[in-house]
Amino acid sequence: MATTIKPYKDSKLGKKDQVAQMFDTISGEYDHLNRIISFGIDIKWRKKVLKMVSKSNPTTILDIATGTGDLAILMTTTTASKITGLDISSGMLEVGKQKIIQKNLSEKIEMVLGDSENIPYSDNSFDAITVAFGVRNFETLDKGLEEILRVLKPNGIFVILETSVPEKTPYKQGYRVYTKYILPLIGKLFSKDDLAYGYLSESAANFPYGEKLNNILRKIGFIDVIALPQTFGVATIYSASKK
């Protein structure tokens, strides 16, 4: 089971409320800082997720922890006629809505304020479900994954893009230095909420990845589970399906 890491250790709020507060605070700067932090490589990873989902020819897609909608916007190039972006942060959703309006995609993408652990849709609703850099923010990982399994259609595809930890030298050592020292420093220099980037770093380092997350997915009931490490293992794309 993943260690519970929260953004604000002195806060009495639960993790879910703290995460929503954190992303509300950094919503205006998130896209720009995300490009800086990942050196823009996250765009390449998202395109790989897009390619995997596209192969399944979905009609309906749910993008959980959609944030400002980057992945949901990418998904408009699939066969899907309806894409739903779900997030607990109203601030992030507002930024995403403006991007969608600017791209004239409002008829295809719906942005919804909602909780990944209580998804407001009926069983077997979506052909494809994606989560990019969001599962480690779930308050209860198993509950969030159970909800995703519930609303995914049989034979549908579920794709996760999440941080992971390189296991080979010298990438392992370089990653540790970057996440422990450089990432929090970037947050302090450029963010309204310097604790946010300390949390993002700590949560990334402590979240189960690779075969550990594969086994959690299998335990929940997903099938055809695979993990595909990206860029020396600093991120991993997971793919799974439903009976």
Write structural notes for this entry.
The chain starts with 14 loop residues before the first helix and ends with a strand. The protein is of the alpha/beta class. Helices cover 45% and strands 21% of the residues. The chain is globular. It contains eight helices and seven strands, in the order H-H-E-H-E-H-E-E-H-E-H-H-H-E-E. Helix 1 crosses helix 4. The protein has helices at 15-38, 41-54, 70-74, 90-102, 141-151, 171-190, 194-206, 211-220; strands at 60-64, 82-87, 109-113, 126-132, 152-163, 223-230, 235-241. It has a seven-stranded mixed sheet, sandwiched between helices. Strand 6 and strand 7 form a beta hairpin.
Summed up:
The chain has 243 residues and is of the alpha/beta class. It has helices spanning 15-38, 41-54, 70-74, 90-102, 141-151, 171-190, 194-206, 211-220; strands at 60-64, 82-87, 109-113, 126-132, 152-163, 223-230, 235-241.
